[in-house]
């Protein structure tokens, strides 16, 4: 089974005020933590989904850049674009670019659930909150994603409502879900 790693890094970061994926935490850009968690599980290819305005800022060594021609269309559009551009993988492990605490162990645990052929997505849940931007999507999601985008439906929730997916519960101590939405969040992180 072939699993690609996809880092979603084309957003506006409107609440943050600048592209937060390039902020440094312990000397490493936020997005690099997502790449490392995927690489440590031997996922290939590793793809950064972004736009032409941001693409030149990434260290693209040993990763593929998937550049969306239309900016800021959302994560469903980005996943659809990657799936159409990269036909080989069976599964796509999606991670957002603003989760500097994501772990390779989290990625490893999630991958174990791809062995059941019935599910088309594997979505982690923490404190009853689903995290569709740290999830696995089977190639069979391409057709429903295409259908939704043609109807101008752009949410990952809409995709999950149209496929059979499995929720995986994680305890509240799991750090992988901590994302940075504002400079004050980042300031708290640095103090912590």
Structural commentary:
The chain is α/β, with parallel strands linked by helices. The protein has one domain: Spore Coat Polysaccharide Biosynthesis Protein SpsA, Chain A (Alpha-Beta Complex), CATH 3.90.550. 29% of the residues lie in helices and 24% in strands. It is built from 7 helices and 10 strands. Strand 7 and strand 8 form a beta hairpin. Helix 1 crosses helix 4 and helix 3 crosses helix 5 (142-150). It is globular, with a radius of gyration of 16 Å. The model has no long low-confidence stretch (mean pLDDT 88).
Helices and strands, in order, run as EEEHEHEHEHEEEHHEH
CA gyration radius, whole angstroms? 16 Å
* CATH homologous superfamily label: Spore Coat Polysaccharide Biosynthesis Protein SpsA, Chain A
**Structure class:** alpha/beta
What top-tier CATH class fits best?
Alpha Beta
The overall number of domains is 1
CATH A-level architecture: Alpha-Beta Complex
- What's the CATH topology name? Spore Coat Polysaccharide Biosynthesis Protein SpsA, Chain A
The overall average pLDDT, rounded, is: 88
Write down how many β-strands occur, each being a DSSP E stretch of 2 or more residues.
10
- Ends distance: 40 Å
* Oligomerization status of the protein chains: single chain
Q: Can you tell me the residue ranges where pLDDT is under 50 for at least 5 consecutive residues?
A: none
Q: DSSP helix count?
A: 7
| Helix percent band | 25-40%
What characterizes the major β-sheet? 8 strands, mixed
Percent of residues in beta strands: 15-25%
Morphology: globular
């Amino acid at each position: 089974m072939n699993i690609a790693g996809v880092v979603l890094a084309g957003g506006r970061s409107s609440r943050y005020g600048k592209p937060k994926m390039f902020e440094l935490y312990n000397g490493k850009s936020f997005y690099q933590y997502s790449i490392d968690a995927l690489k440590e599980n031997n996922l290939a290819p590793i793809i950064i989904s972004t736009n032409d305005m941001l693409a030149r800022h990434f260290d693209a060594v040993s990763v593929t850049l998937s550049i969306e021609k239309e900016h800021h269309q959302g994560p469903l559009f980005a996943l659809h674009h990657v799936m159409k551009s990269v036909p080989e993988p069976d599964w796509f492990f999606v991670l957002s670019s603003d989760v500097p605490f994501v772990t390779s162990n989290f990625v490893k645990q999630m991958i174990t659930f791809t062995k059941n052929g019935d599910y088309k997505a594997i979505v982690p849940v923490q404190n009853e909150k689903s995290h569709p931007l740290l999830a696995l999507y089977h190639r069979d999601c391409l057709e429903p994603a295409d259908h939704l985008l043609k109807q101008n439906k752009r949410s990952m929730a809409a995709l999950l409502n149209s496929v059979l997916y499995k929720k995986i519960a994680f305890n509240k101590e799991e750090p992988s879900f901590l994302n940075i939405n504002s400079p004050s969040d980042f300031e708290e992180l640095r103090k912590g």
